[in-house]
């Protein structure tokens, strides 16, 4: 157990030294990046989570903006941006999708979005479309009824006198609803009285 504790302590010290060395190396690279005038952003190689957090900390201390990109843990990398060249939301979305940032394509997308917004606004100004179906329902059934047969059948059709509202004269039961309900209640009372 004491040997294992000594080994663990030695590994922890070694890991701590590696982190300090990595931080110094990143501070040097960030310093070089700040001094490079023609470089608005720098992409670093994929790193593990601890190294990325160290690099983010170094960038924050240096006054830079940093973001991590990549899908899985093995391929995630850090990009550092100078404050005056801070990325737009569109640029960040492109990096998140794994694409290279192209300002010309971004400008074209922006113009297309503006055009779509203008068209939508013009449609709203015109007002809603008149209510009604978008097409004639007869078109749906044209293959079944044809175009001429339905019109001819509609012209020759006669009204069925037995269909629809029934006149009082044709009804078998001429009582009102109240009269029918009162008669039913009276029969129930009579049955209950007989049962008792």
TrEMBL record:
PANTHER family, sorted: SPERM ASSOCIATED ANTIGEN 7 (PTHR13498), SPERM-ASSOCIATED ANTIGEN 7 (PTHR13498:SF3)
Q: Source organism's superkingdom?
A: Eukaryota
**Can you name one GO molecular function term for this protein?**
nucleic acid binding
Protein's gene: Spag7
Task: Write one Pfam family the protein is assigned to.
Answer: R3H
Would you tell me the protein name for this molecule?
Answer: SPAG7 protein
Write out the ranges of the annotated region (Disordered): 113-140
Q: Indicate the segments annotated as coiled coil, or none if absent.
A: none
Which CDD domains does this entry report, sorted A to Z?
R3H_sperm-antigen (cd02636)
* R3H domain sequence ranges: 20-83
InterPro entries per record: R3H_dom, R3H_dom_sf, R3H_sperm-antigen, SPAG7
Which PROSITE patterns does the record cross-reference, listed alphabetically?
Answer: R3H
């Amino acid at each position: 157990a004491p040997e294992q504790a000594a080994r663990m302590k030695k590994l922890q010290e070694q890991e701590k030294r590696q982190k300090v060395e990595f931080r110094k190396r990143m501070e040097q690279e960030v310093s070089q990046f700040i001094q490079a005038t023609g470089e608005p952003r720098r992409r670093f190689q994929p790193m593990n989570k601890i190294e990325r957090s160290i690099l983010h900390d170094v960038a924050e201390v240096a006054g830079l903006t940093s973001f991590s990109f990549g899908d899985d843990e093995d391929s995630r990398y850090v990009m550092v941006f100078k404050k005056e060249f801070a990325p737009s939301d569109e640029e960040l979305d492109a990096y998140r999708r794994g694409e290279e940032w192209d300002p010309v394509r971004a400008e074209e997308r922006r113009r297309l979005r503006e055009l779509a917004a203008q068209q939508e606004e013009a449609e709203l100004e015109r007002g809603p479309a008149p209510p009604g179906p978008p097409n004639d329902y007869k078109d749906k059934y044209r293959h079944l009824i044809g175009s001429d047969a339905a019109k001819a059948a509609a012209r020759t059709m006669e009204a069925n006198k037995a269909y629809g509202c029934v006149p009082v004269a044709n009804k078998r039961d001429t009582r009102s609803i109240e009269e029918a309900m009162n008669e039913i209640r009276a029969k129930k009372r009579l049955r209950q009285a007989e049962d008792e």
